[in-house]
Amino acid sequence: MARKRREVEIVNDANENAILNKETEGLSQGQIVLRRFIRHRAAMISVVVLFTLIAVVYTSLDWRLGDEKDPIVIPGWWKYGFEDMPELRYGADCVGDSIGCPTIDAVPFFDGDGIALGPHPFGQDDIGRDYLALVMRGAQRSLLVMFIIGAIAATLGTVIGSLAGYFRGWIDAILMRLVDFIITVPVIIIGSVIGFHFGNKGAAFLALLLGLFSWTGLSRLVRGEFLTLREREFVDASRVAGASNRRIIFKHILPNAVGVIIVSVTLLMSGAILLETALSYLGFGVTSPDVSLGLLISNYQDAFTTRPWLFWYPGIFIIIIALCINFIGDGLRDAFDPRQRRRLSRKEKANARAMANRSDLA
Amino acid sequence: MFSYILRRLGALVVILFGSSFLLYNLSAISTDPLGDLRTSTAENKEYLILALTRELRLDLPPPLRYFIWLRGVLGIFTGNANFGLTREQEPVIEAIAGAIPTTIRLVAVATIVAIVLGIALGITSALRQYSRFDYGMTFFAFLLFSLPIFWVAVLLKQYLAIDFNDFLVTAKISPPWIIFFSALVGLFWATIISGTRRRVLMVFSGVFVANSIFLSFISATEWLSYPRLGPITIFIFSIGIAYAVTYLSVGLSDRAALKSNLLLALIGVIIYFPIQSLLDSNRPRVGILTLLAALLISAVSVSFIFARIDRGPVIRTSVITSVLIGALILVDQMMQAWRPYVESDDVNYRPVATIGQSTIWLTEVSFWVRVLDFAMHLVLPTLALTLISFAGYVRFSRGTLLDVLNQDYIRTARAKGLTERTVIMRHAFRNTMIPLTTIMVGDVAGIVGGAIITERVFAWQGMGTLFNKAINSFDLNLLMGVILFLSTLAILANLIADLLYSALDPRIRVGAGK
């Protein structure tokens, strides 16, 4: 009986495989990956949330372009800028005599009125600056730092890793020793040293320097990929056909390693936003008058018992951004993983079982 | 093997040389220790600048200064290392030596808790792949990945220290909270023990009722204000431990192991009475050692009595049980110190500490109150560090176990007719531990680096504080000392990880075929 069941199971497996194979018939590798990614529900939700958040954050404040005195102003949807100082609400305006309380009312009907933003939805800081504007500005800075670090680390890591893995020999030895030098010191230490000295030069410059030290892990991964891929037949074939080194690296090997790179860069970016906030918290990152999410938390952590909103809102933004990126990275990893099998839905499983039973009867 | 280690140690020196040169120059070029003086209004400003320049050799370019510093450091090979002085004229090596124990205490406990919990939950998650528990755990792990540690720390301070201390004054759990906690625990177990809807409901209601009764009992007896275990509770717990350890390690069908473990639980309670006076005496360390020695000796002897053949697994199981029972007795001892500790003037009914590594002005107290004080100061930082690092272990052990379970030898083991417990614990779990071990060792340096933020949040005086001080006061010697320590730790940890890997996995031979 048990043996019989085992046989049915094997046929069942084969049928499930057949269903999965049928789906990928006639599709390119890219299309298969894209399909798998779109099917990853958490990753798709994260993509939507992240892009909405980016759009909201970057359109909220006024953009001032051109020279300082006579800028071209593109108005944002929010009425205050992060440097404006409207009148500080306190006393009778606020519940419980707090200073600069948030006016957002997200609970409909419960307290008698509907959903409303009010003049200062996230409250105000000590000197009356609108906290929504500050959080938006902080999120802009943190996102900018994240993307710059990601871009620089991706470029450097890929190029250095491919050169080391492809050419091997002394180029590999030199580049990998360089990686060793950097990788032995914890990132937070390098970041602090850099941030302390260059933090006042602006968030973008800080991100640029941090990016110069964040590519090491990625370059090791890429090197590993290249070391295995360069021994494969298709590389020999293109070399025999007379392709140059550059062509082999960029046209033949790199496309095969792109999965590893994309996944690792996504995870690196979620690490980057946490690194930036941690540095700003320690006082070695973005410094005032500029604003970042980590700096906001650091400034108002002591106010948690009396004015918790000053602490909650920047934290929630960090978590949403990092969480979305982590889920996107997870979705990409699943999508690029050739061993990954989709879980069949209950209906498809029933189909496979029915097919197995039918062949069993026959 | 020996030549491999020598080669790696040689590479270590080269790498340290390179990275220290890089960072020394980076920090030397970008700092200006004279900055404060230049803008100062002191009358003897010129003289001060000159003195500091001479003291720090600022007249030389950074690369040259690096070699002066290096000459002192290289003295380590001749026995008189000189890491220079800090700006307060204290030898750097002493400052670091003073900070290391604090940081180790902070990191060690958190790492152990994170590893044990992370592996347990990760493995459960893998065994219940694609269940609700698995999805929940995945989401939870990603959430923890995305949390900034200083943000969590502030939340912990508020809810687990300030509010919890307020709660401890009465220690009465209100009915809504009892229902909430019980529902949470019930949900946790119901998602792990999946199955038919009927079974899930049974598990949920069973756990819910048991937990509610338990919490009501705790609340009614004010146990949280007067915590104690006592011999009876210790005995009940010991029997539970005996069953659990036997089940996980050799299976309940091994009668010899089960008998010796149960007897061990009884011996534990008997030892409990005479050991009390020794633990309370003025030489508590002797008491601890005696307790452990007595338990270990009885563990080995009971296994010799009960097991005639194949003694190894039985002895192993008994030793694990005896250590756990010993820990239980020591916890009881700490609980006995709870009231004196809480009632002392300095603590003043606020036992969960938010800052510092110990209550320094707590003098003239017994050994156990001191230990309890250390423990209470460890709670919050440990929890913060654990929450952050345990997510990685959950994900990694889950992934590795799933990989291992797909291997052919697992199918072979199942086909031989081995029980599921043997397949999971003997064949799968042990092989999962190989890559996990190397990850754990490799993580150590990173965790020490991460402790910098934790130390700042909780005001601990460890490596992180030294590092902050070094940066903020342009103290190049101190900064380089800290960096050198951390990078040596990182490289050594990597070397150990590689050696462990080859020791655990006979297929891997390090240093061969190069």
Which descriptors apply to this entry?
heterodimer, A: about 350 residues, mainly alpha, 13 helices, B: about 525 residues, 19 helices
Percent of residues in helices of chain B:
over 70%
Would you tell me the structural class of the helices and strands of chain B?
mainly alpha
Please report which band the strand proportion of chain B falls in: under 5%, 5-15%, 15-25%, 25-35%, 35-45% or over 45%: under 5%
- Helical segment tally of chain A? 13
Please tell me what the overall shape of chain B is.
Answer: globular
Quote the beta fraction of chain A.
under 5%
- Series of secondary-structure elements of chain B, N-terminal to C-terminal: HHHHHHHHHHHHHHHHHHH
- Listing every helix as H and every strand as E from the N terminus to the C terminus, the arrangement of chain A reads HHHEEHHHHHHHHHH
- Report the sheet with the most strands of chain B, covering strand number, pairing sense and barrel closure: none
How far is the first residue's CA from the last residue's CA of chain A?
18 Å
Rg of chain B, alpha carbons: 27 Å
Kindly provide the radius of gyration of chain A, computed on alpha-carbon positions and rounded to a whole number of angstroms.
27 Å
Oligomer: heterodimer
Major sheet attributes of chain A:
2 strands, antiparallel
Mean pLDDT of chain B: 85
Q: Helix count of chain B, per DSSP?
A: 19
Q: Which blocks of ≥5 consecutive residues of chain A have pLDDT under 50?
A: none
How helix-rich are the residues of chain A, as a percent range? 55-70%
Q: What is the residue-mean pLDDT of chain A, rounded to a whole number?
A: 82
| Structural class estimated from helices and strands of chain A | mainly alpha
